[in-house]
Amino acid sequence: MTKQSCATALVTMVGAAVFAVSLPAAPVHAEDGALTKAWNSTRQGTEKAWDKTKAGTSEAWDKTKEGTSKTWHKTKADTDKVWDKTKTDTDKAWDKTRSGTEKVWDKTKSSTEKAWDKTKTGTTDAAHDVGKWGERTGQKIGNTSTAVGHDIRNGLTDDNKK
């Protein structure tokens, strides 16, 4: 029951009670027929008030139910629209992310292959240079020994021929 329908029911019941109290009191020494008439009148007034309260409550409930139903359908429709838009936007974002990821993966793979090839070439070149370095070192040592030998001979003799 909503606040409004509860308040309506309460006001109607209070009105019925006020109505019942406002009826003239039957005289204490009245005839039995007058007392019965007053009692029946009060009872009928109370029943009418009760029926009116019951009908008002039912109408208020039906109106609330109808309004709630309309609100629910509108909310559901709005929610469906928002969900559809969210779903569409999510699909677009996913496709864009997936495409971007594939591009980045391909670029990374290509760069890795280039770096690997460059490292392999550099390693091969370095290995060849080490082999040549041994040959060059041997040549330099050989040339140095000849020069050192020449210098020693010149130092031991007075011959300044170079």
Automatic annotation (TrEMBL):
Residue ranges spanning the membrane: these are none
Q: Provide the alphabetized UniProt keywords.
A: Signal
Region described as Disordered: 41-162
- KW Repeat (keyword) present: no
Record's compositionally biased regions (Basic and acidic residues): 45-68, 75-138, 150-162
According to the record, the signal peptide region is: 1-30
Keyword match Signal: yes
Q: What name does UniProt use for this protein?
A: Gas vesicle protein
Species name: Acetobacter lovaniensis
